[in-house]
Amino acid sequence: MWFRSVFSHPLLQDWQVATLALLLGGGALVLMSFLVALVAVCIGTRRRFYTPVAVMLFAAVVLQACCLVLYPIKFVESISLRIYHEFNWGYGLAWGGTIFSFGGGVLYCLNPKNYEDYY
Cα 34 to the chain's mean position, in Å? Predict the structure, then answer.
């Protein structure tokens, strides 16, 4: 299997496996919440699925924020040369996705009884 070769690489450290698992777990939760919200819109019972989607999004935000804080701390700690290092654009993209997931969770927490009459 492909993931066994990724996780058993001899140069891979434990913190790298942890950040990879946290980020993939958060991404899977975001994808699952999107699919649940999409099914809820197609079925027409959006109000019933507001809480589960919000909980999944907030859980994804917690996982991704832990990953995005852990990664630079352990990365800078593990390099042997103490030089200034800039992270790639993917790190900023991950923070942007985390912030948008938090915003989506907040929007799903709004009172749905007041707004669903307008649809």
Answer: 12
Name residue, tokens 């985390």: 98
The verdict on residue 69 lying in a domain is: yes
When divided into structural domains, the chain yields a total of 1
Position 42 in a domain: yes
pLDDT (tens digit, 0 to 9) for every residue of the chain, 119 residues total? 555 555 555 566 788 888 889 999 999 999 999 999 999 888 877 678 888 999 999 999 999 999 999 988 888 777 766 666 677 888 899 999 999 999 999 998 886 665 555 55
Q: State which H helix or E strand residue 86 sits in.
A: none
Mention every residue, 6+ apart, whose C-beta is less than 8 A from residue 38. none
The model's pTM is: 0.78
Give the residue numbers spanning the domain of 66. 13-118
In a domain, 90, yes or no: yes
